[in-house]
Structures are given as structure tokens and as C-alpha cells.
Specification:
two-stranded parallel sheet; 9 strands; 251 residues; 9 helices; Rossmann fold; alpha/beta; 51% helix
Length: 251
Amino acid sequence: MKALITGASSGLGREFARVLSEKGYDLILVARRKDRLEELKKELNTKVRIIPIDLSNETMCYDLFKIVEDEDIEVLINNAGFGLFGEFSKTDLDTELNMLDLNVKAVHILTKAFLYKFKKENKGYILNVASSAGFMSGPLMSTYYATKGYVLKLTEAIAYELKKEKSNVKVSVLCPGPVDTEFNEVAGVSFSVKPLSSEYVAKRTINKMFKGKTVIVPGFIIKLGIFGLRLIPRKLMLSIVYKIQKKKQGK
């Protein structure tokens, strides 16, 4: 058994690696920070191959697949991504384009490449990491919210196509609320509610993925909040999200 995890050097990616290693999976760990991957490799009990690569570079996404396409990979986790806080008119365009490349384009390329491989083999699991933000529009984090909406909707559509085909390939999307990782530090925000532990989210997500759950939302409060979105006007939703983001703003 073998799994490939992007964004594996920290946060949820690192926890996914720990959970799958405990389940007996050999791992291919992908991230930019080689030193972090080496540290993680030392603590895991199964075979680990590290590939330090920047997936915000489109060419490297194709290169990654070419490197591993002949390996017997059962699980792909598209976890690499980051966020950015600020008014759209003031945030840096190059940073946002880099975010689109990593959060959207890399996920799209790898999902498509591995889906083709898995369908030929009639087996496999793909987990794309989105966010509860994917259910909303996000003033003050507009680009990030939009990228996660893309990942959510893309994954739901693919999962439905596979279901209609009665395929054995399963595709899931993780939509967590706040998780205790390095994300808030990179994005420049602080959470206004207590985040879930990355260990809890990873364990719950992997179990749900193997059960074939399409949309995975850990935590009762976040589930309740997402359900409540169906009941309020969009203008009110935008106002609520804006106020929440404003409270999260780092000093």
C-alpha cells in the first residue's frame, strides 16, 4: 500500500502522513521544504520517499506525476496550499497568482492525472483539501475563499460522475473550519474560535475517506454553521464573513 501526500512538511499534510503510516502505508511525501520532509521521514515506521518540489510551478506538477506514475499508489492527498488576508485592492497580485497556481491549478492537474491512472486500475482514493470557506464568498480573503470553492465544487462533480459510472475510485474533499496548523501564520490571521487539532482532523478525515464520504466536514459547530448558510440571504452571509475575518486580522 502506498500514498502520495502534497504539502506534507507541516500541518495537516504531516498528520496525514502519520495516520497513513500507522495504517501501514508506504509514503511519497511532497513539499518545498526538504529539511522538514527529512525530519518527518525519520519518525515514520513505513518506507518513505521524499520529493522536494514546488507545485506552484505547473511544469513541476507534470514532472511529479511522471516520476511516480508507474508506482502502485492507492491514495493521493492534494493538501498543498496557502491563504492571504487583506482587501482585494491592496493584496499583492503575484502572491495571489501563486496561490491560484498552488491551490487550484496544481490540484486540478494532479487530480486529473491520478484519476485517469486510478480509473484504468479501477481502484484508488483521492482526497482534495478545501475548507469550510469553500461554501462562502470571503471578503478580506477573497482569493483564498474562491480557490477553495473551486476545489469543493470540482471534487463534488467528479465524485458524482464516478458514482454514476459505478467506479471503485473514490474522490473526497475535506472542508475543515479552523485547524491548529501554520496556516494562520502564513495567511496573516488569528482564529476567533478554538481550532481543532490537526491530529483529530487527519484521523477523522482518513477514516471518512476510506468509507467513501464525498464531503468531509469535521466538527459539529462548523457543520452547523454550513447548514445555517442555506437559511440566510447572501448579503447577510457576506456581512457575517466580513465581520469574522475582521476579528481574525493579525495585529
